Amino acid sequence: MVISREAKYVSEENALEHVAGYCVVNDVSEREFQIEMGGQWIKGKSCDTFAPIGPWMVTRDEIPDPQNLKMWLKVDDLRRQDGSTKTMIFGVSTLVSYISRFMSLQPGDIIPTGTPPGVGLGLKPPVFLKPGQTMKLGIEGLGIQTQKVVATS
User: Fold this and answer.
1) Domains of the chain, with CATH numbers?
2) Residue 35 contacts by C-beta under 8 Å, 6 or more apart in sequence?
3) What's the CA gap between 20 and 35, in Å, rounded?
4) What pLDDT, on the 0 to 100 scale, is given for residue 117?
5) Is-cis flag, bond preceding 116, omega within 30?
6) Angle at Cα 18 formed by Cα 96 and Cα 40, nearest 5°?
7) What is the pLDDT of residues 83-102, one digit of tens each?
8) CA 24 → CA 9, 37, 139, 142, distances in Å?
9) Phi and psi of 114, rounded to 5°?
10) pLDDT per position in the chain (153 positions), as tens?
């Protein structure tokens, strides 16, 4: 979700008043940084080019129920992830309210909300992205992204 106006200590009942709209975020993770280098997981999600956003933001009034949108991800045309926002542990209102108790949310802040089932790390054996592969992902009503995996030096 994208925040529309400052939110501090917002109730769940008023939380959506602080949401401008919704967009797709590809929650890319560098598992080597997360698993082999110890510590917090955030370092595996903070690399340059990670978390691409878009292709656009859809305004809140255009999405009647943000808790009922289909989500999917393909790697080289093979569907790896498939799900719905209805399976989110915490809904949009709960997340905005909860986060606003610990930090001020400002206009333009983006809160990514989760990943559908099928993450490569959870497969047996685990499957990881490789240079040259193409990821294509989307959320119903919010658009589709396409990214090519490249190696960094």
Assistant:
1) 2-148 (3.90.850.10)
2) none
3) 35
4) 73
5) no
6) 30
7) 999 998 899 999 999 999 99
8) 26, 29, 7, 6
9) 145, 180
10) 999 999 999 999 999 999 999 999 998 766 666 667 666 666 666 667 778 899 999 999 999 999 999 999 999 999 998 999 999 889 999 999 999 999 999 999 999 987 777 777 777 898 888 999 999 999 999 999 999 998 876
Q: Determine the Cα–Cα distance for residues 96 and 17; give it in Å rounded to an integer.
A: 10
Which two three-digit tokens encode residue 63?
A: 């999405």
Coil, strand, or helix at residue 8? coil
Measuring CA to CA, how many Å separate 29 from each of 8, 34, 85, 119?
A: 29, 8, 20, 10
CA distances from 107 to 3, 7, 130 (A): 5, 9, 36
pTM above 0.70, yes or no: yes
Pick from 108, 152, 137: which is nearest to 1 by CA?
Answer: 108
Number of CB atoms found within 10 A of residue 19's CB = 23
β-pairing verdict for 78-84 and 19-22: unpaired
pLDDT of residue 44: 61
